[in-house]
Every structure is written in C-alpha cells, then in structure tokens.
Amino acid sequence: MEANYRAERCRGAVSLLPRTLREAASLLSEEEMAAAEELRLRSGQPLTVVLPGGERPVGRSVVTPGDLEQLLDNVTGYSRYTAAETVRQGYLTADGGYRIGLCGTAVVDQGSVTAIRDLSSVAIRIPREARGLARPLLPRLFNEGGAPCSALVVSPPGGGKTTLLRDLVRCLSDDAGLRVALADERGEIAAVYRGRPQMAVGRHTDVMDACPKALAIPAMLRSMNPQVIAVDEVALEEDVAAMIRAANAGAALLATVHGESLPELEQKSLFRGMLAAGVFTRAVTIRRREGKRSYEVDEL
Amino acid sequence: MKALGAVFLVGGGFWVRQMLLARRLEIIRWGQALCRLLDSLERGVMVLRRPLPALLDACRREEALLGIFLGEILDGLGREEPFTPTWRRACRHAPACYRPLLEPLGDSLTDGRRGDLIILTREEIHRATEEERRLMGERDRLITALCLSGSLLAVVVLI
Prior knowledge:
Strand content of chain B: under 5%
Oligomer: heterodimer
Largest sheet of chain B: none
Helix content of chain B: over 70%
Distance between the termini of chain B: 10 Å
Largest interface: A-B, 16 and 15 residues
Structural class of chain B: mainly alpha
C-alpha cells in the first residue's frame, strides 16, 4: 500500500513532464518510482531521477530548452503569470503539491530578481505525506492543563523536519481540534495550488503561503486568532523576533530549524536568545540511525 | 421573358453587392469581437490572474464568430503544443487586416507582464475596425453603383 502510494506520487510528478520525457520516465520500474525523491532536468543533459542511492539518467533523450519551457507551461496551465511571484523566488508549486525548483538567467532590477528567463535546470521534488507520523509524539506536546506547548523540531537537512511538521499541524488541527495558522513561506508544507492545500494539513488550519514568516506571523495573529502558529525553517533574526512577539501574545508555536542537536543550537546566537527567553517548552529532535528515523521529545 | 431576364440580371447584381458588403461587415464584426476578447484577456490576465485556457474557453462560448480561432488555440494547448506557434497558427483564421496586429501577442500573453501590449493591440484593432466602418459607407455606394450599372449594362447588351 505504502509502495503503491509512493509510486503513485512519482507518476504524478512524471505527468508534469513534456510528452517525450514523460514517455522516457514512464519506463522507470515500480520500485524506482516508489523510491524516487526528485526528477531533474538540465538543458543538454538526459532527464535524471534522484534515488536514495544517488542520481541516475532516465532514457537517452536529451532535455532541450523547449522541454523546460513546455514543463513550465504544463505546470502553470499556460498561465505563468499565475505563479509569477514564486517563479521570481525560483520555484513554483504544481497541482498535487509538487514543488518545482527553477534555474536560469535571472532578470535583476534594482537589486531584486524580477523574473527568470532562459531556464537551464528544473528539479521536481516528490513530496510524500506520512500521516500518523506525529501521533505518538502528540501527548507529549501538551502541558498538564491540556494546552499545547510551543515545540521546536530540530534536525539536519534531509532529516524529515517538513514531513513531521506537516503531520504535527494536521494532528493538532484534526485530532486536537486546535486553530492552527501555518506560515508556509516556501510552499513546502501545505503546497497550496490555486488557493487549495495539496497536502493534508487539517480541517482547522489556515495557510498563508509565499509570504516571509516575519510578515505572515503578525498578520495571521491579527486576522485569524490562532491557537498554534506553525513555521518551517527559521533562519532569520526577524523570524525569531516575530515568533517571540507571537509567543507573548499567547499563541503556541511550532517551528523547525536546521541543527544536529539542541546543544548545537544553543551555540548559535540567533537561537540562544529565543531559547533563553523560554519561547519553546518542548524540543523534538529527529535522529537517523541505520536508515531509520527516531524522534525524541525533551522538555526545555 | 426579356423582362424576367432583366430582373434576373439586376437581382444578380444586387446579390453580388450583398455578398461583397457582407464580407466587409464580417471584417467589422471580427474587429468588434476581437476587441471584446482582448478586453476579457486584459482583465482576466492582468487583473484577475485567471488561467489562460479557462479565459479563452469562456470567450469561445461567448463569441461564436471567434470559435474557430479560439478552438484552434485550445486544441493546440490540449495537445501540449507551445503557445506562441499555436497562437500564430490560429491567427490565420482572422481577417488579413488584423493578423499582423494579433500575431505579436502570442509572444507575451502567457507571462502576463505585457498588459500594455494587450491594450495597445486592442486599440489598434479598434482603430482598424473604425476605419473599416468609415470606408464601408463609401464602398457601399461604390459597390451599389458598380453592381447596378454592371447589371443594367448587361441587360442593355444582352437583351
């Protein structure tokens, strides 16, 4: 069942490709489809698939600039203007929640990128939900009074922070019935496509995507009266400042950060103040041992 | 018999006149329909940011005259063909006087950054349509005179 779901997600990503490449990619075996993490297209090179063991070419046909343009047309439905804001930031979200990273010649005006032209590379990430992943952790994320605690998810890149955060949001929203405001700056958690989340983030979740966290947090605090605010990959001082203000306003926070462990985070000036201020009362550390992930919840 | 022949010839002359005028009138109707189409596209693309195929499909349902033009574009998009050549190919269905005005739009419609070009094209087509309408009155008189005198000449010569 799980393998079927994983392969189906890959087939969804393949369906976004231009016809010739789609035919090549459909030759992938069921096992490869289930294991595929990304599809990568580079102009002048064959299409490749990223598997846990590394990247390998698919078929012999070489990706042309026209293929990359056609892919963009397929994903946006010949309406690139509908995704202009995120394309400027180098990505777009496709129907089904696929996140497409773009590389090409940046058009820069007054110090900021206004467009990307002449695409040279495209990476299609294949996101997969892990429903129920967060459920065993949930009881430890509430205090004795039954109120949700602010929790920080810590893991190195590729550790599964986003997947865990998505399911935590879903569980808090669906199982605990809390109003969750999700600041999905990079569109990776809810993967909103034309106003509709493509990933299960819960019935009581309000999503603001493609907006910097430092702007989204106070905006949602004002407008949506959330009980929990969730954000992915905190990395800027202004994000931390916005989170501290939200915590002072009474909302519980869920956030992810890059890091091996909590002690390592305490070494970083950006997080030291936030941890010292007692914004978070729980830390969830994701560890990977022998290819398997484990989740440790600590009280702070 | 002669009178019947004369009526037939004069009637033929009027029929030719009607045909020629109908062709001119169709050009004017095309111009008006294209202006409405570009109005919808300008609003849908630049303001509402609605998907282009949905906009074109809605216009096809509203503008019967543009059915073949918009149908060819939508068919091409359904076959995953690039937009620009599909648009240019479909422009062949438009009257010759509008083709050079319409074709350049195909290069910029999907990226939605040239709203000014849509407005400019609409103004150019509107101007061409108004010019066509202005000339139609003069042409109407000229065609009527030519058809009537031609058919009367034929009556005199043949009968």
